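Project standup — Tuesday

K.O.: blocked on the structure for the chain from last sprint. Re-posting the sequence here as requested.
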Amino acid sequence: MELASTTLINLFSVSLNKYHLLFDVNPWLVVGVVLLALLFIFVRWRFGKMRGPNFEIDAAEMGIGPGKISFKPNLKDQEIAYKIWVELSTRKIGLDIDLKHDVIAEVYDSWHSFFLITRELIKDIPVNKVKNKSTREIIALSINVLNKGLRPHLTTWQARFRHWYERQIEKKEDSDIDPQFIQAKYPQFEELKTDLLEVNKRLIAYRKKMHELVLGKSKDGEELSEKIVS
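H.V.: unblocked you, prediction finished:
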């Protein structure tokens, strides 16, 4: 025997009998809920598209051109940035150079290794990921750092300095002198030092940006991802 029944604008009804609580839902209510859900998803997607990029890099800060590089990184981009950041953080390329203690020839060796490793990291990125605009931006940034950030200095100074330095090291009278003292006698040492430290400063900025990307922080502090897959 039915004890109670109520209907709400003919959308659904609830019936209670001795043993069961029964719901009768109007199909149009189901359709309406689905449409509202789809509308909500569309608005969130559209709002995200209109909001624009949420990660920004100052190209001028790294010496690779004017303007800003903006994109919305995904998890794969963070993985790429993580690998690059590790290389930058464990070599004398993304760390401060102190020529009172560091040897220029060893810095150049580290830069050369980073050059080769970064190229391999870029080549290992799956082709299907390169379709993403954000991934292409990271690839372009890394290539520009190599070609515009590193290459001009190495082209101008490396061969000249190495040739002079190796000849100085071979001299018997200099065999007991610290390499840091020998390199400081290079005829154009001050010019080389100024350029080298300027490049170093830009590479440190590059490392910091990769670190921000790894941490998943946008320019306004939003978290892009809750974890990094190694």
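K.O.: great, moving the ticket to review. The radius of gyration is 30 Å. Residues 92 and 107 are 6 Å apart (CA to CA).
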